[in-house]
Amino acid sequence: MRPRIAVPHSSLTGQLATQLAAMLVAVTLLVAGLLAPTTAHAGTDVAPGGAATPTSVPAPASAPAAAPTARSVLLISVDGLSPAVVAQLGRKRTPALHRLMAQGTSTRNARTEVELTKTLPNHTSMVTGRRITAEQGGHGVWWNDDRRSPATVHKAAGHRVASVFTRVDGAGGSSAVFAGKTKFRLWNRTWGRSIDRFQVRADDARLARDVRRDLRRKNRTLRFWHIAAPDRTGHAKGFSSRAYRRAVRSTDALVGEVLRTIRTSPRLRGKVAVVLTSDHGADGGRRHSDETKLGNQQILFVAQGPGIATGADLYAINPGTVAGPGRRQPAYDADLPPVRNGDAANFVLDLLGLAPVPGSELNADQHLKWVRPAS
Ligand SMILES: [Zn+2]
């Protein structure tokens, strides 16, 4: 890890300058392992340099009246999860997803990116906060297979592209990726130096076990967990099939086990925020590539954990910055955009008290909040 102090994204007020100076001292002490990390405002980053101690993002020294920041975030993406099918299955057959929504802040009417409803493009938006089309500032990853050229997201975009992983790394944090498809290796080629663990496994149950073990054993700022089962089954048997619904139920069970690991560990309970969304939905049939179909565009977006409002609707607690899209897919420049999976990047960083991904567009002002507005 490269020692580095980033300038806060907010304007450098006198107070912050003082804090920044204090932090120079703190960095020195941190490296010596003498001081528990304390930092100032979100976006003030301290890298502990060569410190061997496990890292997590420090909580703000003086938290505002609002919610405390999470010590760690688990970002889960369920590939090809249909919110409508989750609703059909109900609380009894998808208890973990329903509990997550009941205990957190959520919407069943979030959206994919506009250009495509495909796995690799949408996931890359999820971790960069960018739209897809490179010519319009997007990350440029429009393909959805294992091709090795372009070799990196930087090559696809035509310039360096920052991500949640580079942001967390720059703040001295640790991150891990657990993915159920080999095409995600693109991320390791792109941001591998910032990702502390990169695990690809086709077996969803074993991958979930890896996630649970990692949660128990490692201190990480951010984990990304991709669950492939619903999508894989949808392509094989159809997204309206019984097999697909079974895959959603087994996914729910895996999510439930991981949530239980968090809930039952004194080290993790109350410190890990969980954000769950999807790369795309499912409109039926065996494909989801028609980006004009509502079913493919429509996804869940759920956040649950320390400081996050319980039983709240994301649109209801964010009036004036986002609006439910009904049955439409609003354009990127809509006055009131929907919640998108691409908002996750900067949402997750905000939960951790970190500034947005440099160069990002979606939720770039971190408008998406997780607490009820003061009345
Ligand atoms: Zn698919």
From TrEMBL:
Q: Which Gene3D superfamilies match?
A: Alkaline Phosphatase, subunit A (3.40.720.10)
Name of the molecule in the record = Uncharacterized protein
Residues annotated as signal peptide:
1-42
The UniProt entry, under Pfam families, shows: Phosphodiest (PF01663)
> InterPro entries attached here?
Alkaline_phosphatase_core_sf (IPR017850), Phosphodiest/P_Trfase (IPR002591)
Q: Which UniProt keywords apply?
A: Signal
Species of origin reads: Nocardioides daphniae
